[in-house]
Amino acid sequence: MDFTFTEEQQMLRDMTRKFMENEVKPLARQIDDEEKIPTELIAKMRDQGFFGIPFGEEYGGVGAGEMGYCVVLEEMGRGSASVVVLLAAHTSIGTMAIYLDGSEELKHKYLPALCSGEKIAAFALTEQGAGSDAAAIATTAVPDGDDYVINGSKLYISNGDIADVITVFAVTDKSLGVRGGVSALVVESSMPGFSRGPKERKMGIRGAGTCELFFKDVRVPKSNVIGKVGMGFLTAMKTLDCGRLSLGAACVGAAKECIDLCINHASQRVQFGEPIIKKQAIQWMLADMAAETFAMESMAYRGAWMYDQGMKTSREAAAIKMFCSETLDRIVDRAVQIHGGLGYMAEYPIEMFYRDSRINRIFEGTNEVQRMVIASELSRKGRY
Amino acid sequence: MRIAICLKPVPDLATAYVSKSRGELVEQSKRVPNPADENAMALALSLRDGGEVAVFTVGDEAAPDALRPLLAMGADRAYLVDDEQAQGGDALADAKALAAAIRKAGDFDLVLCGASSLVHEVGQLGPRLAEALGLPHATRVTSAQVSGATVSFSRAGSLGEGSLSLPAVLTVEPGCNSPPLPNAITVMKAARKPIDSVSVEELALEPDQVGAAGAAVRLRLTQLPEP
Amino acid sequence: MTEDSTAQELMAAYGISLEEETAEEYRGLLVVAEGQQGQVSEASLAALGVGRDLADAFGARLEVLLLGAGEDQAPGLISRGADAVLLPQAPAAYQAQAWLAALVSAVQTRRPEVVLLAGTDITRDLAPRAAQCLDTGLIGGAQELRAEADERLVVGIVPLYGGRLLGEFACPVRRPQFIALAEKVGRVPSEDRWRTGEVVHLPA
Description:
The structure holds three protein chains of three kinds. Chain A is an alpha+beta fold. Helix content of chain A is 51%, strand content 15%. In chain A, the strands form three sheets. Chain A has a four-stranded mixed beta sheet. Chain A is globular. The two termini of chain A are 21 Å apart. Chain B has helices at residues 35-47, 63-73, 91-104, 125-133, 184-190, 211-214, and strands at 2-6, 9-10, 17-19, 24-26, 32-33, 52-58, 77-81, 110-114, 137-147, 150-155, 162-165, 168-172, 195-198, 218-223. The longest helix of chain B has 14 residues, at 91-104. By secondary structure, chain C is α/β, with parallel strands linked by helices. Helix content of chain C is 28%, strand content 28%. Chain C contains five helices and eleven strands. The longest helix of chain C is centred in the first third of the chain and has 17 residues, at 42-58. Chains in contact: A-B, B-C. Chains B and C meet through α3, α4, β9 and β14 of B and α1, α5, β6, β8 and β9 of C.
């Protein structure tokens, strides 16, 4: 097995690391305080080609695949979780749905502008009554002439505040339920009848915009259906699988950054006559964090590799999402403890990592849903 | 315009440290481009007007690490004199090797390199290269424009502005411009751009002209400065 | 001569050949002094001071090549340590080709074993090219020099990596040994009015 990163991946990593250190990290606190990612930063990210990493060059993407995308997310994860969510919601779910199941015509219509970052994407599945129970969505898309007319609302949509292109999941045939009754459609924010609610105030990832989306008689051409009518739920599951895969990589970046901050702090903080890094309690915490990070990193990149090889990765993606989100939570908790009082203070980034981490166990399918996915596959297969 | 850039791979000072016991620099990661050479690259990109930008360096198997970032910035190709006989040279020997490699690769309108290096504050390569190529030169250039067959430039220090007819050699002052950060697309493309190996024989140079054999100046030892 | 002639072509035009000579045939020091507004610069005088110490260590003669200033500067150079002041045919203001030709020509006719220059924008422009033309080495940015008289060698101590390390450089075989000092090295020597020396007008 060759576990080395290719030269391209290594260069992508170096480039993203530099960008993260120079452009993102210095703004991380401001992004959290102001609950906003500056448009100038988004413009710079655009110039760097960050919005099209995994997509094929024929659609204007960078062509780096899932592996290249995970490398970029890991490095970004060291700087700001809000920026990661902006990027990930756009790439691995918003745009990915069109990329995976859209017709060639639909892909050529939307992907170039999405890959360049000229337009930002969002993925709108969750509703007031449909969170983990995604099948319970109530937004409707009713055929009318050459169009579908969409009515309903979506809740807690990442990038909802700035997205230009939204993948919306709506019921096209209530009687068929999820097997044939749900479709995925591309809605443009400029279409009449579309509106957004105010940005939600959150515990963490405060710079990433999250809001309600409202659809009142929004007319969408039938050609904007992603894939076949009625196959939307399948598209949703496929896309979420992809999104879950890369979430692990972002967790790896955050974990590594926290460990580095902890080593730095513990080497300088003197208590009881010596730096606390000499104390076994601290050493054992760091050792656990490092071993766990190695496990996260190994999983995340193996999953990405499997995906790029064309292998089926639903169970692995669920395992990665579940394991990495829970492990990161333990790591950031220990990071706060190692920093003591300083870990609680807003003058230092550790408390931001702590608050930002919590959402990972909830969005992209709660970890309970991930366990359902893994269990159901185990039971279906009859063995590991 | 066809522009040649001469690159000096240097240690990554962000991770290297000075060993007190050995009085040496210990490198801990890949070699990087000399910062002034990146400024030279940025100048080349602003002047290229289509054309071609090629990077030349004398180095060993560590050299491509320093070449790829320049390819990612926008150079089209690179030439690496990696022949063992060419290694370990000083400025005298390297100028001969690079001049021969540049001549072999065709006619260039401009040859650029850094005015100084991270290793050695004072740059010698540019004027030496100009002499070896039989071209006029100017040092410590901070900005330049090309009009027809003339390049006009500003320089750091007391020499001020000037102009030369092309082809010419310019050395570029470190920090005088902002080298573009590679973006994701150029990074992917860079990995596919050619790095051609060049041997001393192909350059029609005698072995005693290049590398350690052709060096006039030797570094006898390194030591820590007095505190 | 066109703008694009190399120093080599100029040498050929002046009828000066660049055949290899052995180290034994090079003797004495040549210090390059630059004039600013007709006065020898302080940096050049400091280089002269450093050169005089080296010359005394070698028991050698020291000549100063004066560029950018006139014969009126010669007495000040002699009183500060020059055994001879060489006046080339070169323009008073810096012109790359002409000053290069003057320096190379002076080395060829006077055959010094060491050429010492102050660290200025002009010498950074001039010295490496002259050294390449003469197929010899240049130790640049030296903050300290050490004479190894037995070997007739000058060892230059040069800061590396922004001063994190010091390197000791030498040019053991080829001649002359070109040395360019770092900025602000050495002090202007005091004058000794009893010293005598020659003034030599170099041919065009």
